[in-house]
Design goal:
Order of helices and strands: EHEEHEEEEE
CATH class: Alpha Beta
CATH superfamily: RRM (RNA recognition motif) domain
Number of helices: 2
Strand order of the largest sheet: 2-3-1-6
Largest sheet: 4 strands, antiparallel
Shape: globular
Radius of gyration: 19 Å
């Protein structure tokens, strides 16, 4: 099961995230998402746990837990939806407009 964890302190690292979930079972991966330019945490991450029962228990017990004075949100991750590609056209005035709908 893939788990989404939000409202993390910007101090939380991958290994910290792994430790939060390890007491519930095997953690296949734990990743805090970082900004591509600065390398700083974006305040959320993902945890993968191969045992669904252990993952469900972790979600139930860690959702709304307080970590570093912040109430974290823990839910099953939803698959990323494909967004329609943006299409831009040059208008008669010479500027670009977004034809996204």
């Amino acid at each position: 099961m893939n788990i989404y964890v939000s409202n993390l302190s910007f101090n939380v690292q991958d290994e910290d995230l792994r430790e939060f979930f390890a007491e519930y079972g095997e953690v296949a991966s734990a990743k805090v998402i970082t900004d591509k330019l600065t390398g700083k945490s974006r305040g959320f991450g993902f945890v993968e746990m191969p045992d669904d029962a252990a993952a469900q228990k972790a979600v139930a017990e860690l959702d709304q837990a307080t970590v570093e004075n912040r109430t974290i949100r823990v839910v099953e991750a939803k698959p990323k939806e494909d967004k329609p590609a943006r299409s831009f056209q040059k208008s008669n005035s010479g500027s670009f407009r977004n034809n996204r709908y």
